Automatic annotation (TrEMBL):
Its EC number is 1.3.1.54. It is an enzyme of class 1 (oxidoreductase). It comes from Paraburkholderia graminis (strain ATCC 700544 / DSM 17151 / LMG 18924 / NCIMB 13744 / C4D1M). This is Precorrin-6x reductase. It holds the Pfam family CbiJ.
Length: 240
């Protein structure tokens, strides 16, 4: 009987967690809502790097690590791959396919925060959908810009920024209404993939708005990769 350690925090991870057994563990970093309706155990908090995760794997007799974290959680993914390798257990990863630009899209790819802010220089009303990172830069907003930051965190508005605390999935109708009301002139996004937050890209396309897109980080090699929760669940041993 294989005990699974599922590293999650995404909607796909929760779909996998709902199929796990009582002896399995669903691990969350602690951001966002913690589910209380799962059959498996739920662990909240960090491990202390790859060495701490290796100790946990060995002490808890974990037989399979599944990395279903966000595509931009590169450090957690690296720690998981290293810890599993050191503990000599397999590591599987759910690698959600990236979005691809379509006809009419104006994507401006950037690698980091400095490139991102340089790409935003011509614009006045950006919508940030990067998570919490912009919150650390609210005192750096150029005089000609007013920022809208959508993330899970509640945060007070400032004189030059509005914080929109919201959790996906987001509907096409809702995104259309938001863009029309706030008159954004550029969208800032991670290439997260999946359908839960894709509607914003369609609205940007409809309104002919540019998208400043943060490139995905490089992720470590693992024993098996899957492009959907369904395909991973099909491969999971029924007797685990």
């Amino acid at each position: 009987m294989t005990r699974v350690l599922l590293l999650g925090g995404t909607g796909d991870a929760l779909r996998i967690a709902r199929q796990l057994a009582a002896h399995d563990v669903y691990s969350l970093a602690g951001l966002g809502k913690v589910p209380d309706d799962l059959c498996c155990a739920v662990r909240v908090g960090g491990f202390g790097g790859s060495e701490g995760m290796q100790r946990y794997i060995e002490q808890e007799a974990i037989g399979l690590v599944i990395d279903a974290t966000h595509p931009y959680a590169a450090q957690i993914s690296a720690n998981a791959a290293q810890a599993a390798r050191s503990a000599r257990v397999p590591c599987w990863a759910l690698r959600r396919p990236a979005w691809q630009p379509q006809a009419g899209d104006d994507w401006r790819m950037v690698a980091d925060w400095d490139e991102l802010t340089a790409a935003l220089a011509p614009f006045a009303r950006p919508l940030f959908t990067l998570g919490r990172e912009p919150l650390a830069h609210l005192d750096e907003i150029p005089a000609h810009q007013f920022w809208f930051v959508r993330c899970l965190d509640s945060h007070a508005d400032t004189a030059r920024a509005r914080i929109l605390a919201a959790r996906g999935p987001f509907t096409l109708e809702g995104e259309r209404a938001l863009f029309a009301l706030q008159r954004f002139d550029v969208l800032v996004s991670k290439n997260s993939g999946g359908s839960a937050t894709e509607a914003k890209l369609e609205v940007a396309r409809e309104r002919r708005l540019p998208v400043v897109m943060l490139r995905r980080p490089s992720l470590p090699a693992v024993d098996r990769e899957f492009d959907s929760a369904a395909s991973l669940l099909e491969a999971l041993p029924r007797s685990h």
